Amino acid sequence: MAAGEGERRIAIRGLTGLGELNEAVRLQKEIWGFADIELLPLRLFVVAQKVGGQTLGAFDGERMVGFLLAIPGLRQGAMYLHSHMMGVLPEYRNLGVGRRLKLAQREEALSRGIRLVEWTFDPLELKNAFFNMERLGAIVRRYVRNQYGTTTSPLHGGLPTDRCVAEWHLDSPRVNAILEGREPERGPILQRIVIPADIAEIRASDPEKAKVIQASASGRFEEYFSQGLAVVGFVKRPGEGVYLIGTWNFK
After folding, report:
1. Residue 4: its pLDDT value, please?
2. Where are the domains of the chain?
3. Do 225 and 168 meet the contact criterion of CB atoms below 8 Å apart?
4. What is the rounded distance in angstroms from the CA atom of residue 112 to the CA atom of residue 130?
5. In the predicted model, is pLDDT for residue 131 greater than 90?
6. What's the mean pLDDT in 163-186?
7. What's the CATH fold of domain 3-185?
8. 109 vs 117: CA distance, rounded Å
9. What is the DSSP string of the chain?
């Protein structure tokens, strides 16, 4: 199936009714392989809808193939959204479904005057890093060690759940440029953090080596962020993914 065909047939809309919310709960297990105790419960989805969060779904006909959950937050007197979870079934990846979910999230947030969405992501998931930085225009200025503890998901490989905090400034010049297909202003690149492109295979076959790579990257992220720097881009090169570190001035 071509990407264009997949994008045309997938509908993005808000979730309605307990049945659709329950299906989003079930999809967590199918996408990530979580144990039941680690699933976000139905009650959280219900509460998110009632207190100004977002529950969005991607549908192929009547089948839900992806979802997004965000909850409201308050920082320095301004409301923002914490995008807590987004997932797409494996057979529907690479069809632009995740990006369409995020763009629907952005449109809905801006319609309410919300200009910031944040979420966390695993810095060892290089495809996600590229998507966040280069397809959406997010930046990163914060790093959290072992945010969720060790989980049962095979995708985490038993490693600490270290996370970058993505900031998506929805109407910034940087985001507007990227969404319009233009190159954003980056300023000088002052540092780089390199991750092997085969880190997923390393995590599966040699967890101890993966932990060393993770720990080294974690220390460098924290060092650079303590200096007031930010991740302002991500490039894919043969055999590696590279986080680009520079200054951030809302461009």
Report:
1. 55
2. 3-185
3. no
4. 28
5. yes
6. 96
7. Aminopeptidase (3.40.630)
8. 8
9. --HHHHHHHEEEEE--HHHHHHHHHHHHHHHH---GGGSPPHHHHHHHHHTT-EEEEEEETTEEEEEEEEEEEEETTEEEEEEEEEEE-GGGTTTTHHHHHHHHHHHHHHHTT--EEEEEE-TT-HHHHHIIIIII--EEEEEESSTT-S-S-GGGTT----EEEEEEETTSHHHHHHHTTPPPP---EEEEEEEETTHHHHHHH-HHHHHHHHHHHHHHHHHHHHTT-EEEEEEEETTEEEEEEE-----
pLDDT band at 76 (very low <50, low <70, confident <90, very high): confident
Least reliable range by pLDDT among 4-8, 214-218, 221-225: 4-8
Share of the chain above pLDDT 70, in %: 93
State both tokens at 7: 């994008």
pTM, two decimals, is 0.90
Name the amino acid, one letter, at 203: R
